[in-house]
Amino acid sequence: MLHLFVDMLERVGFLIALAFVFSRSRWMRSYMSYQGEQAHQWRFIVFFSLYAILGTYSGVTVTPYSYQPAPWIGEVSPTAAIANSRSIGVVIAGLLGGVKSGLIVGVIAGLHRYSLGGFVAVACMLAPVAQGIMAGLCRNAVKRRFRNAASAKPAFAVGLIAEAVQMGLILLLAKPWNEALGLVSLIGIPQVVANGIGVSLFFIVYHTMESEEDRIGTEHARKALHIADLTMPLWRLDFDRAVREVARTLHEETKAVGAYFYKNDMVWAKAGRKTPYWVDLPMEMQNKKLIGRFRLFYERKQEDSPSRRRMLITLARLISQQYAFVEAERQGQLLTDAEIRSLQAQMNPHFLFNVLNTVKSFIRTKPEEARQLITHLSKFLRKNMNGSSKTLVSVRDELELVTSYLSLTKARLGDQLEFVTDIDEAALDCRIPPFTIQPLVENAIVHGLQNIGRPGIIRLDVKREADGGQYRARITVEDNGTGMCLGVAEVADEHAGVALRNIVQRLSYHYGTEKPLQIDSTPGKGTKVSFWVR
């Protein structure tokens, strides 16, 4: 009996090692955590059915009074039986997958055992079915303790009871009864204890593996937070410099041989060197818009363990959230700057004096127009105050602000200013940052039409056009003023100054374009500024 027990433990050890290897797969691990998906249930059932069949084949041939170790069992004589570890696969299937999985695996394992023959074939066919159902019913008891080493105790108890059920069925159904009694006396204790140990060992080994991975995962989380702590202040730099510094930090802290930043499939920053093995850390905004990705290069292919995968996902999210937070803060400051400049324009003494003087002169000669100017001034001030509290407004609202501003300005300039519009109604509901069109119109009047010696014309076009397979609104502000001969970057500085750079930054933030403003200018003929919005 002792020798049989030792042989059984050897086979149990082989089966547990095999189960441990397969438990590294994602779908198997999901069942180990009692979260198995229905889509993968067939894999689970096939694996443990084969596992139970292997437990039968790797068993020991016995007669009621002796046993003979063999490397593989092909068939069983009418007077023999098998001391085996089949119940380990059936019981584990029930404990992890529930009654349905335990029943199916038990039926398959039982039919296979019946096909091998022997005087206990019927009892050994029915035993796995009962074991699978019983293990499924005990599933919740083990599940509650799964993350604790104590899960081995109920698992051991279920394994013992499952084997005891099989011994009872052999005594009840096998004929002749005296031979069944002799068989149970020989294999009962070794098989019951060995298979009970096998079931509990499976949970102990997996718990040990989970504890080690938790430790590694904790270390990975600490590393990710440390890197995030180092990179947070870097995002307050200019974007190009920020990604260079973040790439350098990732290169130093992640043990990667290289860290590159890609945007639009182009390298923007790099530290170290490239290799054939890499992982990507995508940077996304809250609307899932991809900004770019940091690519970490390694000397060899990295292990795709769950804890490491979680660490990389967490690190990518932290970097994305850092950038989004700093960029939102920067956008808030830009909006505040735009609001301040707008209020300064409202309270500009020359602007107000000119408007009030115009109203004063119209009160006697053109009272109706004076009332309209007061209305436009009221709308202009109200729109400015309302827009300062929003990050996006409709094109319709922005055009109302522009109309009020131009009405006030044209009343003063008279025939020296002409305003022409071509508005597509379908584009009026598109969203744009506030104080976007009005500063462009103001710049065109102040910088473009000043001292040109002829009537100035401001043309505003809002068109819904196809661009890259999408319909977007194209907004164009054009004047017939002095024009410029400078490059685009210099034009932005000279023609619009701080206000224009503010518009460029806010449009880039909301629409993700590098150069949102297209500026075309010809000396002596005028300037045209246009941009796309959605």
TrEMBL record:
Domain Signal transduction histidine kinase internal region as annotated: residue spans: 338-417
Membrane-crossing residue ranges in chain numbering: 12-32, 44-67, 88-111, 117-142, 154-174, 180-206
Domain of life of the native organism: Bacteria
Segments forming domain Signal transduction histidine kinase 5TM receptor LytS transmembrane region: 35-204
Nucleotide-binding in keyword set: yes
PANTHER family tied to this protein: SENSOR HISTIDINE KINASE YPDA (PTHR34220)
Membrane topology: Multi-pass membrane protein
Gene Ontology BP terms: cell wall organization
GO molecular function: ATP binding; phosphorelay sensor kinase activity
Principal localisation: membrane
The name this protein goes by in its record: Histidine kinase
Native source species: Paenibacillus tyrfis
Localisation per UniProt entry: Cell membrane
InterPro entries, per the entry: Bact_2-comp_sensor_kinase (IPR050640), HATPase_C_sf (IPR036890), Sig_transdc_His_kin_internal (IPR010559), Sig_transdc_His_kinase_LytS_TM (IPR011620)
Keyword Transmembrane helix listed: yes
